[in-house]
Each structure stands twice: as structure tokens, then as C-alpha cells.
Automatic annotation (TrEMBL):
<dbReference type="Pfam" id="PF08940">
    <property type="entry name" value="DUF1918"/>
</dbReference>
<protein>
    <recommendedName>
        <fullName>DUF1918 domain-containing protein</fullName>
    </recommendedName>
</protein>
<feature type="region of interest" description="Disordered">
    <location>
        <begin position="43"/>
        <end position="66"/>
    </location>
</feature>
<feature type="domain" description="DUF1918">
    <location>
        <begin position="1"/>
        <end position="57"/>
    </location>
</feature>
<feature type="compositionally biased region" description="Basic and acidic residues">
    <location>
        <begin position="55"/>
        <end position="66"/>
    </location>
</feature>
<dbReference type="InterPro" id="IPR015035">
    <property type="entry name" value="DUF1918"/>
</dbReference>
Amino acid sequence: MHASKGDRLVQHGRVVGQHDQVTEVVEVMGTDGNPPYRVRFQDGREAVMSPGPDCEVRHQEERKPQ
């Protein structure tokens, strides 16, 4: 998994009714875009995260309108 500052990490809900959790990468702490990442949640909290297999990276360029 590779991410850059400004990318979004989407952690998919694991059970029925649990929503996806979206965070923004504010710092890449690993080398060459690898985890761990410092992320910011939608409510402003920050944490250090090493994403698991239930996460996906949405890169900035994938989100820009064409």
C-alpha cells in the first residue's frame, strides 16, 4: 500500500450497518509512501495508522473532476 499526503484512506465497515470510515493522510511516516501514516478523521482528530486489508487508498488525482 502506497499513499501520499492528501490521499484518503477508506476503511470499509466489517459488519452489516457499519459505515466506511474515511481519513485524510496528513503525513507519511514510512519510506517510499509505505505505512505508517498520520491521518486526520472527519471530526478533526488525528492518529497514526498502519492500514490493514480492509482499507483502500484513494489518491488525490483519482478524486479530481475531469
